Amino acid sequence: MKAFTLSILLLAAALSLAQGKRDGTAEKPFAEGGQIRMELGLGDYDTVPGHSNQTSIEWVAVVGKEQDTTKANPASAESVTARVDKLFAEWNRSDSPGCSLGVSQNGVRVYERGYGMASLELGVPITPASVFPAASISKQFTAMSMLLLAQRGQLSLDDEVQKYFPDWADHGSPIAIRHLLTHTSGLRDAFILQGLAPPREDGGDPNNAILKILARARGLNFAPGAEFQYNNGAYNLLGSIVKRVSGQSLRAFADANIFKPLGMTHTHFHDDPGMIVPNRVSGYHQDESGLHFASENGGIVGNAGLQTTVGDLLLWEQNFAEVRVGDRALVTAMQTPAIPTGSDGSSYGYGLEIGQYRGLRTIGHGGGDRGIASYVVRYPEQRFAVALLCNLDNIDGNATGLTQRVADIFLSDAFATLPTSSGTATPTSVTLSAERLASKVGLYRDLVTESVGRIFLRDGRLMASEGVGEGESVELTPVSENRFVVLGTPIVAEFVPAAPGRPQEVRVTGDGPKPVVSQQVTSSFAPSSVELRAFRGEYTSAEVEGTYTLAARDSGLIIQIPGRTDIALQPIFPDGFAGAIVGVVKFSRDEGGAVTGFTAYSIGARGLRFDRVKR
Fold it and tell me: To 5 degrees, how large is the angle CA 606–CA 609–CA 613?
């Protein structure tokens, strides 16, 4: 998940960078372990009857016997265990979902442990052998599949997408496979387009449905190669290309060419929702009313769909140090950031994010969805890797941070500086008066993407949320009168007071080479009921199947899509409204002043046109 507007950027900071959308996307005593090995078929993962379901300290020593954990850190293995366990104590209960953690050093697994419950319904604890959906961690395996096909001469990364899909519409500019791999295609987000259309229950392959949506769409968010914009649909499309080129499903191709050669015997792309998977966890979400079962999107693969264990992920990470699948040039290409033509660079290679933590280079990826929070990261120069898989999506905002805390423990001697002086350290906050905080409050609009976000006060704290409402949000912590940060991330929001001819701005940095600038919406628009009726009618789009009905309600409008929840539109400026999914909606009029249609500017679908067909 990446950030595109002020509010999304800030949300992504909490949910992805501290990630801390989801790719997204948001995120004590144990039960008795008993005969866990027998009941779950865990093979070598023994537990002692009557003890907790945590892997014992003695077991950690066994997996690390080729390399003592004390070599990874001056502290003893026992103190390492206690310090790591403390990080997961919040979920270390018999009534909570939790996580599976794996750590490797020099290719040797030095730490594996389960925290919390794999199934609250059945009372089954999480162990290192638990199989989790990994969400967007899947992308690096899809990328590897494409690169293997290219290495064998079966395709070129510069091939245009329409070469493989005869029904591909003219999108205005050619889109190459390389653009899909690097999130620079400019394609509209297929899952947003799907959510804007009436639901179709044809019982077919959901991946084919996504392909049809992308093939039909004609507009682009930007010229291919010009920008970076995280795009799940693009990676789903790559999965379909693997199938067209190889003659095998992505699941079969990856199994034969990646998973089996690396010994990843508990990993697959889950393209069959009805498939029984031994040791698979259940996913959960927690809200004010408690914990709820959270089902995953069954059958969708390429952008997601991977199911795996922490041990298997560590085997994969070792392939980048000791190459067995692909070759050195291939894995180097995966870890090389792409350079969009319209920017100074990006931190994304082929299915991998390249970054740093406390001065050390990192290569990894996170994942988040319903009931899923995951992160896998490698510190290549230290030959150190951490895999974290969780079955509570509320942990998504913590996944990256948790792996960083684990690295703090194991790599204390390798870090150039202490955590308190690192780029992600907690800065010194200041206290601002209620009046000064209130001066930042308002709706802000990115004039480039036409997206909006709201900054508001909640219990005396300044918050930022996506869209016009005050829903899911992150806190902005003041470090000076006009400078705010999202704690645990590199995100900085700098407020620039209004000047003659320009409203107040907020400039957000920390998640890209250029700042994202949004202006406060100062124009008032409160249409009367008579004025609202001018917008009523039926609207259609060449890119979205189905007809929309717009109706006036209260002080705004509603969009009615058959089979979907109504979308409320709130007026924000003359002839401009905003609502969930559609983002900002700008109406057009003819010379006589009659409304002719509207253009929607959502996060992943900029400039989506709807024409009025009936008043």
Answer: 160
Find the angle CA(391)-CA(393)-CA(398) to the nearest 5 degrees: 100
Q: Pick the closest to residue 372 from 489, 265, 282, 439 (CA basis).
A: 282
Residue whose structure tokens are 């780029």: 423
Q: Can you tell me the distance from the alpha carbon of 373 to that of 376, in angstroms, rounded to the nearest whole number?
A: 11
Q: Is the pLDDT of residue 295 over 60?
A: yes
**Rounded to an integer, what distance in angstroms lies between the CA atom of residue 610 and that of residue 199?**
18
* Beta-bridge partners for 366: 375
Ramachandran region, residue 161 (left: φ > 0; alpha: ψ -120 to 50; beta: rest) = alpha
Q: pLDDT tens for residues 452-481?
A: 899 999 999 999 988 888 877 889 999 999
Interior CA angle at 75 toward 73 and 80, to 5°?
Answer: 85
For tokens 């078929």, the residue is 41
Query: What's the rounded mean pLDDT across residues 127-144?
Result: 98
d(CA 139, CA 145): 10
**Domains along the sequence of the chain with CATH:** 1-27+426-522 (2.40.128.50), 529-614 (2.40.128.50)
* pLDDT tens for each residue of 564-607: 999 999 999 999 999 988 999 999 999 999 999 999 998 889 99
Using DSSP, state whether 239 is helix, strand or coil: helix
Question: Which SS3 state, helix, strand or coil, does residue 306 take?
Answer: strand
Residue 436 neighbours by CB distance under 10 Å: 13
Complete DSSP assignment for 307-344:
EE-HHHHHHHHHTTTS--SS-HHHHHHHTS----TTSS
Beta strand extents in 528-593 (DSSP E only): 537-540, 547-553, 556-560, 567-573, 576-579, 583-589
Edge to edge, the sheet with strand 384-390 lists 108-115, 99-105, 384-390, 372-379, 360-369, 353-357
Catalytic residues: 136
CB atoms within 10 A of CB 167: 9
Q: Can you tell me the distance from the alpha carbon of 17 to that of 488, in angstroms, rounded to the nearest whole number? A: 8
User: Over the stretch 418-448, which tens digit does the pLDDT of each residue have?
Assistant: 455 444 455 789 999 999 999 999 999 998 8
pLDDT band at 165 (very low <50, low <70, confident <90, very high): very high
Residue 448's pLDDT is what? 85
- For the purposes of burial, counting CB atoms within 10 Å of the CB of 38, is it exposed (0-12), middle (13-18) or buried (19 or more)? exposed
Identify the band that residue 510 occupies on the pLDDT scale cut at 50, 70 and 90: confident
Report the amino acid identity of residue 4: F
Cα 323 from Cα 316, distance rounded (Å): 10
The pTM (predicted TM-score) of the whole model is 0.84
| Residue that has been written with the tokens 């250029």 in this structure | 514
CA–CA separation, 506 and 139 (whole Å): 33
Best CA proximity match to 30, nearest among 89, 94, 87, 91: 94
Q: How far apart are CA 556 and CA 151, in angstroms?
A: 55
